[in-house]
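Fold this complex.
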Amino acid sequence: GENVEQHPSTLSVQEGDSAVIKCTYSDSASNYFPWYKQELGKRPQLIIDIRSNVGEKKDQRIAVTLNKTAKHFSLHITETQPEDSAVYFCAASLYNTDKLIFGTGTRLQVFP
Amino acid sequence: NAGVTQTPKFQVLKTGQSMTLQCAQDMNHNSMYWYRQDPGMGLRLIYYSASEGTTDKGEVPNGYNVSRLNKREFSLRLESAAPSQTSVYFCASSDPRGELFFGEGSRLTVL
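Structure:
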């Protein structure tokens, strides 16, 4: 089955710096790769996603890159702000299903 | 439009007791899910339902059963609770693009 590994588990940055979170997946047939943000005590919410026919996608300060050959994808947050502090989860779909397998999460702390 | 609603929000059980977590969505989504969230383990899929009347095991199905009662409702049952099932449980549904919409979560403690 699909296995998704996520690194680092914690990340501390200064406000205004960039943050990068990386994930690898095992199933080469996976074709959908979303990122979820979970603030403390809240439910996870989608922030950006990418499909296997695209190499990069950007939405304001957030971007995701996908390398299908190497089976890894990354989340990039630029000009970080204190409200970016949260736990971020990557996920990958199982081939031809709606099932999502999540990584173990990255706790991002942005210090003012 | 409430989205995904799950109950109860908090529950304490003794080992061996049973309980059912209820989940309902009003977005007319076909797919529904139950995940559990444990510190350092991320979100692990327990069971999945692609449509009314169908269910499928996820990564960690042992000790759980599910029922997709109709298109709106997807319940998770613990027949004989164990301390290892202490966790936060999230129900979710997904839209045709694949975006998951989560409920607020149910915090379960098994003593």
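The interface with chain A takes residues 31, 33, 35, 40-45, 48, 50, 56, 58-59, 90, 94, 97-100, 102-105 of chain B (CB under 8 Å).
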